[in-house]
Design goal:
This protein is mainly α and about 90 residues long. It has one domain. Helix content is about 65%, strand content about 10%. It has a two-stranded antiparallel sheet with strand order 1-2. α1 runs antiparallel to α2. It is rod-shaped. The chain starts with a helix and ends with a strand. This is Outer membrane protein with glycine zipper.
């Protein structure tokens, strides 16, 4: 149980790392969701099975939400070759 809380605390610290990449946000969201789901599953008293099910459901949900909330920025170049961000089509 202490390990689960340690994992959840570590995942919570990772939330502060912001990234504009959709893949990065999906990975962080999946990890955070899995840790949260495992803690909730273990806290309900369902044993290891509930913790694993909570981790699987939380990980999948967190990955979907993380990818969906990523900003859609693309890079374009001006006439001098300097990059700047634009909204992706």
């Amino acid at each position: 149980m202490k390990k689960l809380f340690l994992v959840a605390a570590t995942a919570a610290l990772l939330v502060g790392c912001q990234s504009s990449s959709q893949t990065d946000r999906a990975l962080v969201g999946g990890g955070l969701g899995a840790a949260t789901g495992a803690v909730i599953g273990a806290a309900t008293g369902g044993g290891a099975g509930a913790a694993l099910a909570g981790a699987a459901i939380g990980g999948a949900g967190g990955a979907v939400v993380g990818a969906a909330t990523a900003p859609k920025n693309c890079v374009a170049y001006d006439q001098y070759g300097n990059p700047y961000r634009v909204v992706c089509p």
